[in-house]
Design goal:
Largest sheet: 6 strands, parallel
Radius of gyration: 18 Å
Strand order of the largest sheet: 2-5-1-6-7-8
Oligomer: single chain
Order of helices and strands: EHEHEEHEEEEH
Number of domains: 1
Shape: globular
Distance between the termini: 11 Å
Strand content: 15-25%
CATH superfamily: P-loop containing nucleotide triphosphate hydrolases
Number of strands: 8
CATH topology: Rossmann fold
Structural class: alpha/beta
């Protein structure tokens, strides 16, 4: 599996870009999975649901299955967050895994950048960032792509990973 990341500061457009890239790349006939990193206690289950009740009761893992999908939730129960490589080992094989977040992980990335956030570019201090997708013309040594040109960003990523 090929890996490529989308990173950037909060409100820089990462999630929207990820969504558009998945649509663009799967539309080209490739298979894509995604990994989303969150810095807060993300809750994907809801109080009152059977699976939530199983977790609250102390289950380490809860697998929910239906005719349409299945999901596995793993409670860390005080253990450290696993490294990205350990998480990737749980994914089924696909052509490309797009990873949102994980700014310092070693895989190559495109930085999503919106001038309005007022945040400095990560690309100038992070050698894993290979391009910046921006709604401005930031000063950086890496290529700058228009943030709203999903096709061009997809082409850049696919060329980088050899797909």
């Amino acid at each position: 599996m090929k890996l490529y990341g989308i990173t950037g500061w909060k409100n820089s457009g990462k999630t929207g870009l990820m969504e558009r890239l998945v649509t663009e790349i799967t539309g080209r006939g490739l298979t894509v999975s995604t990994v989303k990193h969150a810095h807060h206690a993300t809750e994907i289950d809801h109080p009152g649901r059977d699976s939530y009740r199983h977790r609250q009761a102390g289950a380490v893992e809860v697998l929910v299955a239906s005719p349409l999908r299945w999901a596995l939730m793993h409670e860390l129960r005080g253990a450290e967050e696993p490294p990205l490589a350990d998480l990737l080992a749980h994914l089924s094989p696909v052509d490309l895994v797009l990873i949102e977040g994980y700014k310092t992980a070693p895989h190559p990335k495109v930085e999503a950048h919106r001038a309005a956030t007022g945040q400095p570019l990560l690309a100038n201090d992070n050698p894993t960032i290979r391009a910046v997708a921006s709604n401005a013309a930031p000063d950086t040594p890496v290529p700058v792509l228009p943030l709203d040109d999903t096709g061009a960003i997809a082409e850049f990523i696919l060329a980088e990973v050899g797909l």
